[in-house]
Amino acid sequence: MPSSPAEQTRRAIASIRSAIASPTNPDKPPRLYVDYLVPLPLETKDEDIDPWPGGLAQIYPYAEDILRDILKGVVGDDAKEGDCSSQILSEADCCGFFVQESTSDPKGDVAAVLFPGVDQLADIERIDEMVGKDRTLLLFNRQFARPEDFGFLGKSGAKKSIFDRFTWGFAFQELACRGEDVKLTYEHPSWCSCVVCDEDVDLGSQQIKLLEPQPDRPLYDALEKKINEVLPEPLWMRKMGEAQDKGFKFQR
How many angstroms separate the CA atoms of 128 and 179, rounded? Predict the structure, then answer.
């Protein structure tokens, strides 16, 4: 799993470039999802209930800088000097549009929509047409997961314009499964998964591999079943065992 934001960015660039060079379906235009785990602000404290009290409006400037770096890295040495162009699609929804141009070939340009939500379906369709079939379009940290999120009237259009066209370019995701901290990554062409154990202070943080690399995102039930195999004791029981063997942390 990426150990730093810089490493996550490098791996995202490599995965996206691989997905563009070796598409899952060569007959479709390069349309990719990117899920990037935006690092917490440096001033975040352990006791903070919500590290992003301002929501997407607070996250946006951090994500914008990351996205610009990724777009420039994907285009590579042919990236046009200076910042990539951008515009706000929706100030209320904190959604923006970015384009990194290539100096050698317009087909090398890469565009991205940052934080697209269900209200941006028309924008995505318009941008998709504008970008064309030869250039790459990314949906970066989308705010929807399935066609049903677009409502009864919008789900069929969303399925046709987004879900039937876009595939994964890169992902680094966190989720809780059976109370454990699980991390998933997609680096073209495979999903990988691990569980992070950090309850033992002496051993530090440990990553335990779960499922073998696979082309589809792992299902919750499959992750839970594997966790039950590799970690038969639940987290609370392991913490109790550590306290009995070594005493409470504040006593050490």
Answer: 40
